[in-house]
From TrEMBL:
Its main location: endoplasmic reticulum. It comes from the Eukaryota. This is ER lumen protein-retaining receptor. Keywords: Endoplasmic reticulum, ER-Golgi transport, Membrane, Protein transport, Receptor, Transmembrane, Transmembrane helix, Transport. It is a multi-pass membrane protein. Coiled coil: none annotated. One of its GO terms (biological process) is vesicle-mediated transport. One of its GO terms (cellular component) is endoplasmic reticulum membrane. One of its GO terms (molecular function) is ER retention sequence binding. The chain crosses the membrane at residues 49-77, 97-115, 121-140, 152-170, 182-202. Pfam families: ER_lumen_recept.
Amino acid sequence: MNIFRLAGDMTHLLSIVTLLLKIHATKSCAGVSLRTQELYALVFVTRYLDLFFSFISVYNTCMKIIFITSSFTIIWYVRRHKVVSQTYDKEQDTFRYLFLIGPSLLLALILNHEFTLTEILWTFSIYLEAVAILPQLVLLQRTKNVDTLTGNYVFLLGAYRGLYLLNWVYRYFTEPGYRQWIVWTSGIVQTAIYCDFFYYYIKSWRNNERLSLPS
């Protein structure tokens, strides 16, 4: 565990807390993409299958459980909560996520470290996480004005990935033989997807304006 990974994990956790705080406090999920949340739930479930047969540390196990349960909690709020679900903008959240799941699975079957079920599912989760934010970004572009908490949530998600890039660089120079090209490539793609959002987020923050993304 190094400082970059710890900071990345805490930033990821903070992003989830921010989103749950928005939903619980405002009783609204306006601007939140259910499709992105369902993709993240799929990412965590397929990545953390080792919870059933491998133990690394208490920290590692707790973080995995938190990510899985928080994802399904958000999905429950958007789908089932009698007040929050009424604010979900289903007509705008129409990104066809099968276009993300299908290619990610196909790529995992072709490019992986080992052709086993758990390894393929783990690789699939890495590829899918790289693009899982796309439905959320598209929704924010369609709705134009973005509330502060939703904007902060997306920004923190992007910051988490950026910190993980630094973690990988650190490990490359400090751990002999550390090579994870699938993770590196997917992480770079994921971070690049956030670049446009970062630009408008920082611009709105500097000008003290409400965040608004162009079409």
